[in-house]
UniProtKB/TrEMBL annotation:
Coiled-coil intervals, chain numbering: none
NAD-dependent epimerase/dehydratase domain span: 86-303
Primary localization class, coarse: Golgi
Lineage, highest ranks first: Eukaryota, Viridiplantae, Streptophyta, Embryophyta, Tracheophyta
InterPro entries for this protein: Epimerase_deHydtase, NAD(P)-bd_dom_sf
Top-level enzyme category: isomerase
Stated name of the protein: UDP-glucuronate 4-epimerase
Catalytic activity: UDP-alpha-D-glucuronate = UDP-alpha-D-galacturonate
Membrane protein topology class: Multi-pass membrane protein
Subcellular location: Golgi apparatus, Golgi stack membrane
Length: 403
């Protein structure tokens, strides 16, 4: 595989490790596009976006022009006619970073930055940008990971969820349905769609009509919107319900991440319990397992059947749980972190607030196992060990203080 594709950011400089906390927020707001050609020795090339953490608006980014187009084309030049061409949105985000580098790694095994990533900064709501990209490169697949994530932040900034997870998704689907050939789309839903469902383990056929947060509601809306575009336009659509994904380069707003930070600082951490001392547990899923599920979904996605905005026949419509099938109580998570960090946590047991978090998640993954060959191999202990190693190394120089 070719190792000479680009890493490019507007305004110069790869800044995506500048501030993880800020970047995480940014990466969900920004569109990251990756073009990747793979399968049997095609040239891997990518476009992604890195957010400039010093800016607070999406309105002033630039794209286009003949030099830009040339770079897109150059980075998207395939060596093999049977390679996939994947446009990855959200590639600067947590899952996107890992998925795009894994796609690259099918060839050479380096990290995202070092493999060379061509970066386009933009918003998935920018129709002209998406149309231009499809004009320049006929993508066979879209891996749609750009989203506004987080359960509790939805109460602070509800509009950002509607903007990214609903309006942005619809905009992407509008462009995908009208281009010729239509790409197959794999996109990130969420285990949060199970909401107040109490039947465990969660199976794809269980009810998902009781979301407990606006975040969950927008992901559920995405699943219904996917159904519509599949039904009307023949788009091939695969939704992946991720279960509490964790690992290196993870989101600082997630519990395992800020617990690590606070334990090291000697700060008290809030551990939630449900009514009557009920256990709060999560089916924590290690990033590498999620990446394998994403690639499995891309590799098994059938072609869309429509063309030029017209349906020609029924197309594939799927939704899969990607979990670990092994829920772990949050108190056990803290114990593992204590052992790995060699620091005792100051635990403050609190009642689980009713602001979006559910008590328990547990994935039934037999469908993904059968169809995608999905088989998680990393337990929480081993995964956290890798996370902690990364964390200590990443924050060791004292300059990259977590915000
Ligand atoms: C898991 O889901 C499959 C369908 O994909 C179902 O047949 C099976 O009974 C489920 N297992 C459990 C333990 O609920």
């Amino acid at each position: 595989m070719e190792k000479s594709s680009y890493f490019f950011t507007r305004g110069g400089g790869a800044r995506w490790h500048y501030s993880l906390a800020k970047l995480t927020v940014w990466s969900f707001a920004f569109l990251a596009l990756i073009l990747i050609f793979f399968l049997r020795s095609p040239a891997p090339s990518t476009i992604t976006s890195a957010a400039d953490p010093s800016r607070r608006s999406l309105r002033n980014y630039n794209w286009g022009g003949s030099a830009w187009e040339k770079r897109v084309r150059a980075s998207a030049r395939a060596r093999s006619s049977n390679g996939l061409t994947v446009l990855v949105t959200g590639a600067a985000g947590f899952v996107g970073t890992h998925v795009s580098s894994a796609l690259k790694r099918r060839g050479d095994g380096a990290l995202l930055e070092r493999t060379g990533v061509f970066i386009v900064e933009g918003d998935i709501n920018d129709e002209a940008l998406l149309r231009k990209l499809f004009e320049v490169v006929p993508f066979t697949h879209v891996m749609h990971l750009a989203a506004q994530a987080g359960v509790r932040y939805a109460m602070e900034n509800p509009g950002s969820y509607v903007h990214s997870n609903i309006a942005g998704f619809v905009n992407l689907l509008e462009v995908c349905k009208s281009v010729n050939p239509q790409p197959a789309i794999v996109w990130a839903s969420s285990s949060s769609v199970y909401g107040l469902n109490t039947k465990v383990p969660f199976s794809e056929k269980d009810r998902t009509d009781q979301p407990a947060s606006l975040y969950a509601a927008t992901k559920k809306a995405g699943e219904e919107i996917a159904h519509t575009y599949n039904h009307i336009y023949g788009l091939s659509l695969t939704g992946l319900r991720f279960f509490t994904v964790y690992g290196p380069w993870g989101r600082p707003d997630m519990a395992y991440f800020f617990f690590t930070k606070d334990i090291l600082k000697g700060k008290q951490i809030a551990i939630f319990e449900a009514a009557n001392h009920g256990t709060v547990a999560r089916d924590f899923t290690y990033i590498d397992d999620i990446v394998k599920g994403c690639l499995g979904a891309l590799d098994t996605a059938e072609k869309s059947t429509g063309s030029g905005g017209k349906k020609r026949g029924p197309a594939q419509l799927r939704v899969f749980n990607l979990g670990n099938t092994s829920p772990v109580p949050v108190s056990e998570l803290v114990s593992i972190l204590e052992r790995l960090l060699k620091v005792k946590a100051k635990r403050n047991i609190m009642k689980l607030p009713r602001n979006g978090d559910v008590q328990y998640t547990h994935a039934n993954i037999s469908y993904a196992q059968r169809e995608l060959g999905y088989k998680p191999t990393t337990d929480l202990q081993s995964g956290l060990k890798k996370f902690v190693r990364w964390y200590l190394n990443y924050y060791s120089d004292g300059k990259k203080a977590v915000e």
